[in-house]
Specification:
- The complex is a heterodimer of chains A (615) and B (84).
- Chain A has 615 residues and is α+β, with helices and mostly antiparallel strands.
- Chain A folds into 3 domains: 6-203, Aldehyde Ferredoxin Oxidoreductase,  A, domain 1, CATH 3.60.9; 239-439, Aldehyde Ferredoxin Oxidoreductase Protein, subunit A, domain 2 (Orthogonal Bundle); 449-514 and 534-613, Aldehyde Ferredoxin Oxidoreductase Protein, subunit A, domain 3 (Orthogonal Bundle).
- In chain A, 38% of the residues lie in helices and 13% in strands.
- In chain A, helix 2 (33-44) runs parallel beside helix 21, helix 7 runs antiparallel to helix 20 (518-528) and helix 19 (489-503) crosses helix 21 (535-556).
- The radius of gyration of chain A is 22 Å and the shape is globular.
- Chain B is mainly beta.
- Chain B has a single domain (2-78), classed as Roll (Ubiquitin-like (UB roll)), CATH 3.10.20.
- A 5-stranded mixed beta sheet of chain B has the order 2-1-5-3-4, with no helix packed on it.
- The radius of gyration of chain B is 12 Å and the shape is globular.
- The chains are: A alpha+beta (615), B mainly beta (84).
């Protein structure tokens, strides 16, 4: 198996670091990363545990291809029970941290308990120790990363850490590595903060070993890289325009949730699009976009590096934000832009920088601001409560609300609880655009029927990365499907969910699947790992992972009744555009989906399904 | 008749300079003009013509020769793209 076969168990209560062998029987069933860590979590904690209590665990994990020559093989995941959703949480990140952890010789780090004082874990190959982090507590992600590198006199250390949002347990706090890559969703950073764990810092110099068949592996990797290079999406489109190329097409299709999902078209979309990031600004003659950037081993390089306009109101007195830095990616641009009716590109990037700096999920932050703005316009939240006026379209209000949330000040404390809790507090839970407590990303579930089903059934709450039905419904990958139709969607979604669970367990980036199918990935896994990793085995592994996550959620108290969408998406049709009149038709698709999954009518895996999957 | 013609992503390069900041321009076309006729008149490379939307509705390749445009229609075209 192309894994180191050892994990580090860190008991924060006792301050101990213990080496353990990785359960190889579980590796055969769950592969690595998302699958394997979920198996460990589900086996070691009571799913009903309070996500922010010491009884929850937090697992850093890599896949068998992390750190290898495989294209995009630098991914790692953080798996825990999420405080935003009370469901399984799995944040996946790129950058250069995952390969460093792998190169240090670790497959997994399991954090348990809670430290009495702030600490960080420092790993130097096989040596691991907990060190005091009082000097870094209260500091941002950016200051913490720089501070740890300076303290150890080693700029090549890779750091994954929380900012002040994680410390103050903002429920959508993320964990940031390499300054602007993040395990972003479901509040994994709040769990880290609840344990008084500030950072994981790694220096790994052992490289890779244990590739089962190096010659076959390199041949498979070379073939895979050629597919990525020759594909117009991964070879040209993503490097040039990044994910932000979606802004205009989703809007043209009338599938862009706008002003807290009141509308599905945003007139300002063009001004905040990937195309706009390439244009010279009138203020300084510079383009917003500076360059693209790749994570470890990536031959796509979709990442955006931008420079904010120094004269913009948000930063004109804050030179610390003037340098080139990460963003904007599509989801963040949408969440700060369309969801709030704000078409000020620089304001969106400022909020994105705050998320990178203090460790917050921009999707949940932006979408929660959208709920605040609707409640404000309805007169349910007053100017006095917020501290200023907050109508839709106000870039100033957006920036102030992001600042307050990042700092945990004033109204930001409430905003940091996420849309569901905030809207419930004001007696309007129906205005929370969430599933299982997590905010929607940038596609409307009424306009894209398959995405509606994907949101309703996602194991980590509303999410686009558990089954990206935008691919067939918009992009024509692997085939073009009618976004309005419900026929065929449950079948396609199940295939996407299972395949994505596999990809997330390999150490590869899911963006490879715009060009690759599992047939391109399978030879790389088979050559790298011992044992049988045929297509059949991989597909069964994906289905097993999906069902394991489902069972964790069921045991946590989440039921089939939670496989739904907010009433707005079920009852209020799209007002304009090509999808006008559409509502999300979950009721047509969910029974078919359950049957395909081998679940009963309550959404519970049957005895036969459990036996078939070896659960 | 007038239609709105939009080119995005790498296809933006085929627009005149004055239209690039909006990705769109107003186009005067024949009354019975088809989607394919507009695409051909702009000499867009076939492999770059991937997503073709008329008023936001996808027009599959096999329908582009017969799909006639109406006044004020918006014809928008993208090369192969993805994101997320």
């Amino acid at each position: 198996m192309a894994l180191a076969r050892k994990l580090l168990r860190v008991n924060l209560t006792q301050g101990t670091c213990v080496v353990e062998p990785v359960n190889q029987d579980w590796v055969k069933q769950y592969l690595g990363q998302r699958g394997l860590a979920t198996k460990y979590l589900a086996s070691e904690i009571d799913p009903k545990v309070d996500a922010l209590s010491p009884e929850n665990k937090l697992i850093y994990t890599v896949g068998p291809l992390t750190g290898t020559m495989a294209a995009t093989g630098g991914r790692f995941s953080v798996v825990t029970k999420g405080p935003l959703t009370n469901a399984i949480a799995c944040g996946n990140s790129g950058g250069y941290f995952g390969n460093e952890l792998r190169s240090a010789g670790w497959d997994m780090v399991i954090f348990e308990g809670k430290s009495a004082k702030p600490v960080y874990l420092f790993i130097e190959n096989e040596k691991a120790q907990l060190l005091p982090a009082e000097d870094f507590w209260g500091k941002s992600v950016w200051d913490t990363e720089g501070g740890i590198k300076k303290k150890h006199q080693d700029p090549q250390i890779r750091v994954s850490c929380i900012g002040r949002a994680g410390e103050s347990q903002v429920l959508f706090a993320g964990i940031v590595n390499d300054l602007h890559r993040a395990a972003g969703r479901s509040g994994v950073g709040a769990v880290m903060g609840s344990k008084n764990l500030k950072a994981v810092a790694v220096r790994g110099t052992q490289g890779m070993s244990d590739i089962a068949d190096p010659k076959a592996f390199m041949a498979a990797v070379k073939a895979g890289k050629k597919v990525l290079a020759d594909n117009p999406v991964t070879g040209q489109g993503l490097p040039k325009f990044g994910t932000q190329v979606l802004m205009n097409v989703i809007n043209e299709m009338g599938a862009s949730p706008t002003r807290n999902h009141q509308d599905v078209e945003f007139a300002g979309a063009r001004k905040i699009s990937g195309e706009a990031m390439h244009e010279k600004r009138e203020t300084d003659g510079k383009t917003h976009l500076v360059t693209n950037q790749a994570c470890f081993g990536c031959t796509i390089a979709c990442g955006r590096i931008s420079r904010i306009d120094e004269t913009h109101f948000s930063v004109k007195t804050k030179p610390e934000y003037w340098g080139a830095s990460g963003g904007l990616e599509y989801e963040a641009a949408w969440a700060f832009g369309n969801a709030n009716g704000v078409d000020d590109l620089e304001a969106l990037q400022y909020c994105n920088l705050l998320c990178n700096e203090e460790g917050m999920d921009p999707i949940s932050l932006g979408a929660t601001v959208g709920a605040v703005m609707e409640l404000y316009e309805l007169g349910i939240i007053s100017k006095e409560e917020i501290g200023f006026e907050a109508p839709f379209g106000s870039a100033e209000a957006l920036c102030k609300l992001a600042e307050l949330t990042a700092r945990g000040e004033g109204f930001g404390k409430l905003l940091g609880q996420g849309s569901k809790r905030l809207c419930t507090k004001y007696g309007r839970p129906d205005l929370s655009m969430t599933v299982k407590g997590q905010e929607f990303p940038a596609y409307d579930g009424r306009a894209l029927q398959g995405m509606g089903l994907a949101y309703a059934t996602s194991n980590r709450g509303a999410c686009h990365l558990r089954g990206y039905m935008v691919s067939p419904e918009v992009l024509g990958i692997p085939v073009k499907m009618d976004p309005k139709a419900t026929e065929g969607k449950p079948e396609m979604l199940k295939a996407f969910q299972d395949a994505t669970a596999v990809v997330d367990s390999t150490g590869l980036c899911v963006f490879t699947t715009f060009a690759w199918n599992l047939g391109d990935i399978q030879p790389q896994i088979q050559a790298a790992c011992e044992g049988d990793w045929s297509m059949e085995t991989l597909l069964a592994t994906g289905e097993r992972i999906w069902n394991l996550e489902r069972e964790f959620n069921l045991a946590a108290g989440i039921t089939g009744k939670d496989d739904t969408l907010p009433p707005r998406l079920l009852n209020e049709p799209c007002k304009t555009g090509p999808q006008a009149g559409m509502v999300a038709q979950i009721d047509k698709m969910l029974p078919i989906y359950y049957e395909l999954r081998g679940w009963n009518t309550d959404g519970v895996p049957t005895t036969e399904t459990r036996a078939r999957l070896g659960l | 008749m007038q239609i709105t013609f939009k080119l995005f992503a790498s296809l933006s390069d085929y627009l005149p300079d004055e239209a690039r900041r909006t990705n769109s321009l107003s186009l005067d076309v024949d009354d019975d003009c088809t989607v394919e006729a507009v695409i051909n008149s702009w000499a867009l490379p076939p492999r770059m013509v991937h997503l073709v939307l008329v008023n936001g509705e996808f027009v599959p390749p096999e329908k582009r020769a017969e799909r006639r445009l109406n006044p004020q229609d918006a014809l928008a075209i993208w090369p192969p793209i993805a994101g997320g």
